[in-house]
Specification:
It is built from seven helices and no strands. With about 160 residues, it is mostly helical.
């Protein structure tokens, strides 16, 4: 869909493709992590887990691994097909290099979203906000270079 938005514009299709694929992969990882935690809540074992407090590696790590596998397969499949279609297969190694960062971001945001949504009527509320914001803030629709540059920038703020 985003490639159709930038069709016949002067934007770079490859940037849009890779941004969209990586953003959707991160969103999928967040969704898988939240869904697996919420499933535990739905079947009633979340109270037992909270009282037992199992080791991180026994409870959360398998959820992160499943989310990472989903994210990796999605990014490599969609990114590979897109790069081959755009005759930009030379960028595939850069796509591979982005995977660890995408997995780290997805795991962190998924964990925060799942914990924040615990025992809420809508447990996906934060995950929905984050995944919706990812598309807007990633520069997929509007290139980050086209955002307004005001007199106060983060660079000036921190220096």
């Amino acid at each position: 869909m985003f490639l159709l938005i930038v069709y016949n514009s002067n934007q770079n299709y490859t940037r849009t493709l890779l941004g969209t694929v990586i953003t959707s992969g991160i969103a999928s990882g967040i969704g898988v992590t939240c869904a697996s935690f919420i499933y535990d809540q739905d079947i009633g074992i979340s109270d037992d887990i909270a009282s037992i407090r199992p080791a991180f590696s026994k409870y959360w790590l398998p959820k992160f691994i499943i989310a990472a596998i989903t994210l990796t397969v999605e990014i490599l499949t969609l990114g590979g097909i897109g790069l081959i279609t755009l005759n930009e297969a030379k960028l595939f190694p850069k796509l591979l290099l982005s995977l660890p960062l995408a997995i780290l971001i997805s795991s962190t945001l998924g964990y925060v979203s799942a914990i924040t949504g615990f025992r809420h009527e809508n447990p996906y509320w934060l995950a929905n906000i984050i995944t919706g914001s990812l598309v807007l803030l990633s520069g997929v629709i509007i290139s980050i270079t086209q955002y307004p540059f005001g007199s106060v920038s983060l660079r000036n703020y921190f220096l």
